[in-house]
């Protein structure tokens, strides 16, 4: 009976690892010095960098476009207060400059991103790592930008017609 239970747990662990690699969200685990500990399949396919190439490297060395001071200030409460932090595309279109591969939203050159930083509690109860989740919101951003552009055009047409 014990063997079946252990096999079940192994299968469950395998499924979890497979989901982690195939989920359509970027997952990155960072330590307190912002060194990468985990890099999933989404990150690999959008960055072109293998997990073995990034593991142990500092996020800011690999992505110089990330403002270290700004990102550190966003991450500090996640480490210290165990709060989640959010970065939305309306405030900053992207954190990591990935090209936009989506054929439907081909009007945008880069992937627009929403980011969530979550604390990861160790077995000792301390937060030594954080999980960064990167969501591709390019379709949403492109749609909103198109709508805003249409509203400006409509407003201009109304002004001309009325004035």
From TrEMBL:
Family matches, as InterPro entries: PAS (IPR000014), PAS-like_dom_sf (IPR035965), PAS_4 (IPR013656)
Protein's UniProt name: PAS domain-containing protein
Residue ranges occupied by any PAS domain in the UniProt entry: 14-80
Pfam family, one: PAS_4
